Amino acid sequence: MLAFDRVKSQVIPLDRANVDTDAIIPKQFLKSIRRTGFGPFLFDEWRYLDRGEPDMDCSRRPKNPDFVLNKPEYAHGQILLTRENFGCGSSREHAPWALADYGIRVIIAPSFADIFYNNCFKNGILPIVLDADTVDRLFREVGPGYELEVVLETQTIVKPDGSVIGFDIDPSRKERLLKGLDDIALTLAFADDIRAYEARRREEAPWLFAPVDPCT
Amino acid sequence: MAKTLYDKIWDAHVIRTEEDGSSLLYIDRQLIHEVTSPQAFEGLRLAGRKPWRPEANLAVADHNVPTKDRAKGIADPVSRLQVETLEKNCREFGIPVFSMSDHRQGIVHVVGPEEGFTLPGITLVCGDSHTSTHGALGALAFGIGTSEVEHVLATQTLWMKKARNMQVRVEGRVGPGVTAKDIVLAIIGEIGTAGGTGYTIEFAGEAIAALSVEGRMTVCNMAIEAGARAGLIAVDDATIEYLQGRPLAPKGALWDRAVTAWRELHSDPDAVFDQVVTLDAATIEPQVTWGTSPEMVVPVSARVPDPAQEKDPTKRKGMERALEYMGLTPGTPIEDIRLDKVFIGSCTNSRIEDLRAAAAVVKGRKVADTIKLAMVVPGSGLVKEQAEAEGLDRIFKEAGFEWRDPGCSMCLAMNADRLEPGERCASTSNRNFEGRQGYGGRTHLVSPAMAAAAAIAGRFVDVRKF
Ligand code: SF4
Fold first, then answer.
1. A210 pLDDT tier (thresholds 50, 70, 90)
2. What's the half-sphere exposure (Cβ side, CA atoms, 13 Å) at B200?
């Protein structure tokens, strides 16, 4: 997994609530069997004026000039600022894959949908929850040239005027993100505990371990 | 200490808990489909890992499969590759899979309960948000991302933090013509699409207990549309009756032992919930969504709401956008909304009882001339066979509906079934997001009976007066 340390970047204001994962990456792009290459199709239906298909060359497609990602002043943003319930809907991990592939490393919102929030950490994206008033204030402040610095170690966001906003994050998630650790390898260190659980459970609920092969 | 149903299942699956409260949770079962699994298998392969317990998984392709002319295979090469990749991966890793030609093939969330793969008291996951469906059988079931699919394959576990407990009580009985779908849409209208975020919702109360197990699946299916990863309903006689004799349900002495354990799967009477929401069933009417989020829902007797009445500016903007996208004017009576297409299907409403309810409305009538396409897509091959044995297919076909093969179909339009830009559809699925059923398509979520009535009338009608 991609490690996360700190990011200093422009802030892209996406002033919408309930942005769902269908909007982040529409379903026609879910047919890929790869993990990469989704960035050009991020927010496809809002970003382009035509209808996107997986094999298109996006540099030639007509862009929606009103959509924030298409504004030159936000072209290099790695921090996305948005409204409540970001990432609701489908569990597709293609959504954080598309955001990460585009270059987004931090998403700031008053709340996130649960599955999406989890998926971010698996892909080196830091989702930050701030209260709605603080997010509102940030929306009023952002504009061309406005940058924030996000430091995971100290759990702080440094504003252009030097003032600091703190944020919360689970210690274990923070550790994994900072080090870019492989979750599966970490869990397999507990293989003996898993086996012990299975042995106990086999006694309590043997029907869960009866051989089931529906295909024979 | 008194426990909720969620507490009980959670506690029975915790392997260890870290200081910060994250727990390593044992996962009993995983369902797998073609869209969210290729990268997980690829990850295993790259790391040289094997599945921990291959037989704890069941795979079936559903999102990309065609719903007609199936013998010809999948025309779209990209879809075909994804479906073939699933079967290839399952063979390589020893995972049971129903192929596209298997008569048990269908939508994962229909197949799991139908086969008895879903059992009370288990933890069940799938790389699909509507995994909440399986909570109808008293299983703790929730959607996960692809990295987690890989993690479960490799370790049979997940790291999780316990959610909070919410109970949604629907007291009293619903009136005639009001279904499980209307109940859950009314709940979402009440608590909002983020109302359940961070919670596991247990649905309870007389109106929920009175539902069939299939109706309960419809309710739990949409727990995720209220923001909750998991929905739960207590085990009762109906649950046990539903499971008896299912192919993968325990048999003989094991069945008796299992049933004894399952009888404990309810919240203790004095269990404490972090939040309780109560609805009066008698006030719930047939529901119709008017916007681009499931919380944008009103009773069929109502009118399209006016954003000008909304005080919260973010909400008002959301409503204006939704109305523009949906091509609707505030104040329009819902019953004046005319439709282009009708879709009866999806993991929300494609089981046999759903098809029976729709057929009962359709019988002896004709789909309106103005409807370009009305289709019925059964949730699985077994549902299809059952419906045909009952003659439901003939009722639909005689009325002018298309009768298709099982799959997700126009619920999300990853196969050939989709809306064209601007087309308006009455759909029994679960999401009315922009573009969900096809680029520029407009979706109104309703119950199967309401969708059937809309197909006949060409516009929304109150099925109770139909
Ligand atoms: S029917 Fe629709 S909601 Fe259900 S699994 Fe398929 S695509 Fe998802």
1. confident
2. 29
Q: How far apart are CA B232 and CA B366, in angstroms?
A: 39
pLDDT, tens digit (0-9, with 9 covering 90-100), for B136-194: 999 999 999 999 999 999 999 999 999 999 999 999 999 999 999 999 999 999 999 99
Q: What size, in residues, is chain B?
A: 466
Phi, psi for B292 (deg, rounded to 5): -115, 25
**Which residues, at least 6 apart from B241, have a Cβ–Cβ distance to it below 8 Å?**
none
Tell me the angle at which helices B146-155 and B38-47 cross, rounded to the nearest 10 degrees: 50
Q: Give residue A3's pLDDT.
A: 86
Angle, to 10 degrees, between the axis of helix B38-47 and the axis of helix B77-93?
40
SS3 B26: strand
φ, ψ of residue B30 in degrees (nearest 5)? -135, 135
Nearest residue on chain B to A33, judged by CA atoms?
Answer: B38
- Quick one: B122 exposed, middle or buried, by C-beta within 10 A (0-12, 13-18, 19+)? buried
Task: Supply A192's token pair.
Answer: 């003996």
ipTM of the complex: 0.94
CA neighbor of A54 nearest in space, from B128, B90, B81: B81
Residues in Cβ contact with B260 at an 8 Å cutoff, skipping those fewer than 6 apart: none
Per-residue pLDDT tens over the stretch A15-57? 999 999 999 999 999 999 998 999 999 999 999 999 999 889 9
Dihedral angle of Cα A50, A51, A55, A61, to the nearest 10 degrees:
10
b or e along A135-161 (b: 16 or more beta carbons within 10 Å of the residue's beta carbon)? Answer: beebeeebeeebbbebebeeeebbeee
Among B66, B67, B84, CA closest to B75: B66
Nearest to B122 among A51, A84, A208 (CB): A208
Separation of alpha carbons B91 and B82, rounded Å: 14
Q: What is the pLDDT of residues A44-101, one digit of tens each?
A: 999 999 999 988 999 999 999 999 999 999 988 999 999 999 999 999 999 999 999 9
Q: Of how many residues is chain A composed? A: 216
Instruction: Quote the CA–CA distance of A71 and A86 in Å, as a whole number.
Output: 21
Distance of CA B242 to the CA centre of its chain: 18
3-state class (DSSP) for residue B125: strand
Cβ-Cβ contacts under 8 Å, A23 against chain B: 433-435
In degrees, to the nearest 5, what angle opens at C-alpha A20 toward C-alphas A17 and A26?
140
- Tokens 């004026």 belong to residue: A49
Determine which of A36, A93, A122, A135 to mutate to test the interface with B (most B C-beta atoms within 10 Å).
A93
Verify whether the Cβ–Cβ distance B197 to A184 is below 8 Å.
Answer: no
Q: Which residues 137-156 of chain A have a CB within 8 Å of chain B?
A: none
If one compares B462 and A172, the residue with the highest pLDDT of the two is B462
Compute the CA torsion angle B411, B413, B416, B418 (nearest 10 deg): 80
Q: What distance in Å separates residue B10's CA from the closest CA in chain A?
A: 14
Q: Would you say B159 and B15 are in contact if contact means Cβ atoms under 8 Å apart?
A: no
Tens-place pLDDT, residues B53-66: 999 999 999 999 99
- How many Cα atoms are found within 13 Å in the side-chain-facing hemisphere of A157? 24
